Amino acid sequence: MGSRARDSRQAILDRLRSREVTPVELPAIFGDDSISQVAIGFDDPATQFAGTVEAVGGLCLQVGSMQEVLNKLEQDEVYRDAARRCSLVGDEIPGNVNLQEIEDPHELSSLDFLIARAEFGVAENGAMWITDRDIRHRASLFITQHLALVVSRQSILCNMHQAYERIGQPETPFGVFIAGPSKTADIEQSLVLGAHGCRTLTVFLVDEPA
Amino acid sequence: MATVSEHPEKAAAYIADRSRSRWHDGALWFVRSKRDRMAHSLPEWEQLRSTASQIKAHTIANLPEILQQFEANAKARGVHVHWAADAQEHNEIVLEIVRKQNATRVVKSKSMLTEECHLNPHLEAGGIEVIDTDLGERIVQMRGERPSHIVLPAIHIKKEEVGETFAKYLGTEPGASDPQYLTEAARQHLRSKFLEAEVGITGVNFAIAETGGFVVCTNEGNADLGASLPRVHIACMGIEKLIPRLVDLSVFVRLLARSATGQPITTYTSHFHGPRPGCELHIVLVDNGRSRIRDSDEFRSALGCIRCGACMNTCPVFRRSGGHSYDAVVPGPIGSVLSPAADTKQHRSLPYACSLCGSCTDVCPVKIPLHHQLLTWRQQIAAQGLLPVSKTAAMRAGSMLFQHPRIYALAGALGRRALRWLPKSWVYNRANPWGLDRDLPEPPAESFRSWWQTNRQGTSVDEGMKSKEAKNGK
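Output (structure tokens, whole complex):
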């Protein structure tokens, strides 16, 4: 690729510079007269969020504590049937797969259940933000058959402008918004849950200090 | 050099199957309706569109600086950045990266750019297996077809046909057509491909100059598996995919899925800012004619397209004639603007595959004035002498007619008589393509002009009209 690629780089930039285009001002996203000022808000973002999670195919359970999360999980058939479970939310929820002990993400191909924590949720679309800060293998989020996410009720934001304001600058190489289970409508527009990623998504909306 | 392809001819076959054409129309209108519900649920929808449009206009104006800023920041995050002037160079760069890994198996997520560059045949010729992992793309790949829509690649195929294809290639039950069952079969098949692959290729929805990262949006999670299992991830993007700041994503992420499929957001919106530990991340920046479109004052704003497909779902011509009739990687209204920019002669008929209803312009989330651009293309195509004789001759005749009122009146009188008395075969034949699908109207007994003279002469409220008639010697 050596010199030819460098030539193409210069050629593209020269070409672009050869044509002066009338400048257009970059609009503000935050502050007066900006889109974030007029963006939709909700009196009770957490309730709106719970409704939106269900609308995009997830199951939202509102709980008071992590102990209650465990109780709900133990009542859940999918969790009970899961042979290989991974927990990234602390010792309250036990697991038998430890991401730290796994070198190659391909070993996760038989993972049945993953429970992880999301940093915050967004009411307008049911999305939750997760980074690879505490997740050794990004693949675990996508390869697991079933995914559960714990998110604090106090962390729910109204819209995506607030979400990116909160993210600030990305500190880790990977971050993802997840909204609902994996889905497709590629066969005659019939909605099918569980395309390549998780078949089910359970969201635990926990009441705890933000 | 590719041969000239005429949209009406390509569309004819699809329209001939009336029930399929109607079914396709209905399927896309359903998606368009979902888009409307989403747009109406946000009171700030129009401000979102204006903001997005301005961000894109700013980006395109400052593209060289923004590209260099992106490159520097991406490199600082350990990303390999490559530049490709055209499709050929893009394909060579990708093949070389794959070869360096001694890899033979590649999984790819949906990317219009790699379609545009015909990457698959290039890699396959180099002995590499390339598996498209988006379900719709995988279906068309197995069938040896091309996607017919940029967001819904298999929208033209019925579930029974998917069943036949899967029975042949995946060993599913013959005759099965249940989408749930077929999707499960594809899931199992593609999981094995994800686990085998040594390199994952994805497209890019948005690349952020300020951070050197990029975003990929999918519902299925295929890009995410393809990028997180293999050791090497190659992301291919057109140079117009950039946005200046991370916060700009808040605008585009809100618009994209709502405009595309009527969802509030895609299931997965993944942000890549550097390779996984011990792994490689490559980005290929591709021009392939984009800088030329940027040169044009008329078509520059088309570079702002975020590939949501809303213009296709709303287009009455696309809905009935199917995406393949456009014979272009990007079909529909935006494709009819972009394709002639790449090769005017080959795609000269596309700007005419349009009723100028303006619906595409109304739904475009970045406010590209699509139907105005299609009209501009018609003028340019005529000026370049690329119109077929059937159109130029008719235009010349029309122009002559409208410039000479006497001849116009005479032609009208003759036409009224001819339509009444001539046998059907004289009127409906190859010289009258208009009559292929339509009956000409029953001619009135008298012209409007003579009706006016009898009923309104001297009582007109429009003095201008009278004086004009007087001048014309009436």
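The CA atoms of residues 48 and 135 of chain B lie 31 Å apart.
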